[in-house]
Design a protein that fits this description.
Blueprint: H1 2-20, E1 27-34, E2 43-50, E3 53-58, E4 67-69, E5 74-77, E6 79-81, H2 89-92, H3 97-100, E7 104-109, H4 129-139, E8 144-147, E9 149-150, H5 151-159, H6 168-183, E10 188-192, H7 203-215, E11 219-223, H8 231-245, E12 249-251, H9 265-277, E13 282-286, E14 291-295, H10 309-317, H11 319-329, H12 339-343, E15 349-354, H13 378-385, H14 389-399, E16 404-409, H15 413-420, E17 425-427, H16 448-463, H17 469-476, H18 478-484, E18 500-503, E19 526-529, E20 532-536, E21 539-540
Parallel strand pairs: 1-4, 1-5, 6-7, 7-8, 9-10, 10-11, 11-12, 12-13, 13-17
Antiparallel strand pairs: 1-2, 2-3, 5-18, 14-16, 15-16, 18-19, 19-20, 20-21
Length: about 550
Amino acid sequence: MKHAFIALAASGLLAALSAQQPRPFDLLITNARIVDGTGGPSVNGSVGVRDGRIAGVGRVTGAATRTIDAHGFVLAPGFIDPHSHSDYALLTDGNAESKIRQGVTTEVIGESGSAAPQKPSASRPWSDFAGYFGTIEKSKISVNLLSYVGLGQVREQVMGNDDRDPTADELAKMTALVADAMRQGAYGVATGLIYSPNAYAKLPELVALSKPAAAAGGIYVSHLRYDGDKLREGLEEAIAIGEGAHIPVQVLHIKVTGAKNFGRMKEVIAIVEAAQKRGLEISANQYPYVASSTGLIQTIPPWAHEGGNAKLVERLKDPATRARIRKEMDDPNPTWENRLLSAGTWHNVQIASISNRSIDSRQTGLDTGYKRFEGWRVDDAAKEMGKDPYDFVFEMLIANGGSVGCVWFIIDESDLKLALEQPWVSIGSDGSALAISGPLRIGVPHPRNFGTFPRVLGKYVREERVIPLEQAVYKMSGLTAKQLHIADRGTIKEGLAADLVIFDPSTVADRATFTDPFQYPVGIPTVIVNGKVVLDNMRHTGERPGVVIRGHGFAGASH
């Protein structure tokens, strides 16, 4: 009896001691230079990860299933890309190769147009965000994802591509769609005000549609209506929406376009800071390139877009309408944001992607005769064809159903650097998750799809010293999380999600160029998403631990 009691007591003591011993870490990263995403100074130490969360920071010891020695490397929070267009790319390839390899662990989509609401189709079987998010979760992805609802998408569902104000009934229907999207997990509302049908929306409509998002704790993000000659009007419109709807505002890819506007970033900063002093929560993001990217149809006045690309193609085929369009393209004082005016010449416009799809045939994959010009400047391609550049552009748009992507060299380096120095400007790619091979290798796209984040760390931190390393990491993680109101990511802190990136500050760099964009960056060997190693020694592991991060208005669940 005595021996049995001693044995029982001993086993109880062992159980108690065992219970006090912490479980091994799933992952322990040691000897790192920790840049924690707050903007504060770096410290040397270790980080332990358990069950997808950061379980220890600093002098962390203990057993671990796997240990990574990060001596000589920076350990930072996974980067958050606040401006992404991977809405459909992630369903084509959930590995998110070009983003993961930049250190991006969370993508924010839905900016200029969103995956919902829409009419279901064979390739897109959902109609709302509940369906889209469910499709994403079923397919599995390597990055985390959150989405805005695009107000252009909402307008199209109710009003089509009509250039007019909504009726009271139409406005009520659009408001209901926004409210539904917020309940289903959208993070806020977004506009691309140079694109139809969003371009047809006026201030009262935009304020009204932003109010349900504000009530659900969302934010308003915008590709401004103007960022060239009328940039002040474009910025003041975004501010008016924020103040009118009582909603935080983020300006997408803040920039000043067109040579005659170079140097006006100081004016932009003054307008934003004045709004901040009045109490508006307003911020911006930017990409580190002197070229933008958008469709070639942005050289054509908005009235010609009414009814969609099919109607645009019809108008381009009509000689009288085509002559009117050309005349307005050359107007030095347009009422719209004419990208050709910003570019100055056709040589500053580079053809990025040809759809090879005509409106008439609705076929894809046919050779429209223009695919070979991907990567060419428009004037050079026109000369090769023996055509006037305007006629070449019109005929290329007709042949490809209006779908021709371009890169536009319209930004000044000094303005870019000045924006980068502002404490309220974060880093966002305005790109998609592409890959160097497979179905996501398309055209000759903007290098921002492959190089945005390492370019900041290499060119603007290490080489040119525009901002210090800690500030750059903050702009890619903690600041972005703060701007977007993401509570459990963005900094290295115990209890937060284990989204982490390890990079070499002495070698990290982008390799993608405007003529050869399909190149992954260097100096980023390891990326961790929700505690799982997704990039290991610069090789994608195939892990897809990404989650959908639903907005604060999501009904029925915690965030």
